[in-house]
Amino acid sequence: MFVLSRTHEPLCGLLSGLASALLLCAVSTAHADDGSTFNDLITQGKVSGYLRSYEWSNNNFYNSNISNNIFVVGGKLKAETGTVDGFSAGAAFYTSHTPQSTYNDPTSYDPTLGTNIDTLGESYLNYHNESVNVRVGRQAIDTPFANSADYRMIPALYQGETMSYTPSQDFSLTFGRISRYKSWTSATFDRTNNETAGPFQKSGPGFTNFADMVTGGFWYAGVHDVLDMKGEKLNSQVWYYDFFDIAHLVFLDEKLTFNLQSDFKPFVGLQYANEQNEGAALFGTINSTPYGLQLGADFGKNNLTAAAIHIPAHPGTFNNGGLASPYTDGYGSASLFTGNMLFPTEGLGSGNAVQLSGSHTFNEDWSSWASYNQFNQTSSAFAAAQTINEYVVSVNYNAHGYFKGWKISDMLGYATLAGNSNHFTQNRLMAQYAF
To answer: pLDDT tens digit string along 41-87?
Structure first.
């Protein structure tokens, strides 16, 4: 395997600089004196967005004796130009506000939701042809360990350069260099991340230097391939991340789906990650080696899945051998088999996670799913071993026809922590109209 390290950062800078220069030069020169081209930029442009609201309630917030609720409204308004010789531009404004006057009191609402925020979340130049896409500026990205996690009011967003090469529907290469980050709860793009700032910031013994720590961003590269073997499909992903002066992470994800010439389609998945500290090691020594297995089947309008992740303990290292996942910790948006609603696996340190889940589609508008997760956390120098059980059920309405654009979902989560009588219940009712 070809693995890149921090010593390749000049190459990343060169590629990023070339991407930026390519876009700026091409946009300034392509048909600059062609009136019809300018008209196309305007007339072929489009405006889109959504209006979104949340009714959010917590009882025994994260197994404490705090209960609260909040109602939040907001949305997104995005404008995109037309395309000229493959070049275009886009910008999106996001807002999130609550009519409640007590939002400054952290005991009166869920601090992870993000309220009273107005931000220019996207502003970019883009080049696209049949197989290549290059984007420079503020944008959303979708990778296993850095993504938009768009299930709060405002998504997580990134500032930098991204490139993808997709010569066919079965193969793609992806690269990105990210310099700044905007979390769910921030209006600004800065050099922090979820583990050094915001409501998921690491604190307490072992993390005393994390508060407001400035970090240098990251770069990533990924390969995605789908191999069709006489009906059986092997979906493979390999990703590499360099979180500058923190760690480098390799992530492998394999999923084999069997075609039995019926509605019953079983599948098996394997995952493996290896993360080690690098450079200045701002998070200290990191040694994390999670691996997992997933078994399941799709049949008709149903799905049943069982999964397990084992994260070996490495005493004396970051979070006792747990992953350092600066941009998904707390969000539960890392692409691990046992991703869950209330206690995401990537932030819990070392231990064993299991998940049983199922879903059913009633019709084109209505669907539901449910899951059970258990995480058995191993003991460390800073904390005793503990067991967390989590139950989640969700009902979803995604309208078609006359009410197209409307989406309503309700998620109810219930979590118990061994030895703690404050059982945590959270309900999320989200309504959205997209246009």
So the answer is: 778 899 999 999 999 999 999 999 999 889 999 999 999 999 999 99
The answer to pTM > 0.85 is yes
Q: What pLDDT, in 10s, does the model give residues 105-152?
A: 656 677 888 888 999 999 999 999 999 999 999 999 999 999 999 999
The Cα 120–Cα 182 span in angstroms is 10
Give CA–CA dist 275/251, Å, rounded. 9
Q: Is residue 386 part of a domain?
A: yes
User: What is the residue whose two structure tokens read 């307490």?
Assistant: 204
Q: Report the CATH number that the domain containing residue 218 is assigned in CATH.
A: 2.40.160.10
Domain residue limits at 11: 6-45+79-91+122-434
| Residue 394 is assigned to a structural domain of this protein | yes
User: Residue 57: inside a domain, yes or no?
Assistant: no
For the chain, how far is it from start to end, CA to CA, in angstroms?
A: 45
Q: Distance (Å, rounded) from C-alpha 297 to C-alpha 306?
A: 9
CA distances in angstroms from 363 to 152, 264, 300, 367, 405, listed in the order given: 26, 19, 12, 7, 16
Q: Using DSSP, state whether 158 is helix, strand or coil.
A: strand
Please report whether residue 68 resides in a domain: no
Q: Residue 143 gets which letter from DSSP?
A: E
| Bridge partner residues of 366 (DSSP) | 397
How many domains is the chain partitioned into structurally?
1
Cα distance between residue 92 and residue 165, in whole Å? 25
CB contact at 8 A, 119 and 154: yes
